[in-house]
């Protein structure tokens, strides 16, 4: 079964896309928790962090490089930002397609949120 993220990748659902290449798609979160809140996803479906393999190391690194690029593009890199990846229900994961949350534009508190 396709997730909402797969439907966004396939353009079945509209999203405010801020970055795209052959492996990664990034778009503004529809329920932002900060002035800048971008979701960064691989185009290949991987359900959770627990499903990653050694072969995914480069892809996961690419997600983080894209997060840093978007932070620079959005003007939040120098002040700081948060990058979060949740895993499974108790970790706060609601869409089972790995994704980074890039959040910034305000002072972040702990815990995330």
UniProtKB/TrEMBL annotation:
Top-level taxonomic group: Bacteria
InterPro entries: Histidine_triad_CS (IPR019808), Histidine_triad_HIT (IPR001310), HIT-like (IPR011146), HIT-like_sf (IPR036265)
Residues annotated as the enzyme's active site: 99 (tele-amp-histidine intermediate)
Coiled coil: none
Motif extent (Histidine triad motif): 97-101
One Pfam family from the record: HIT
Domain HIT stretches: 4-113
Molecular function per GO: catalytic activity
Name of this chain's protein: Histidine triad nucleotide-binding protein
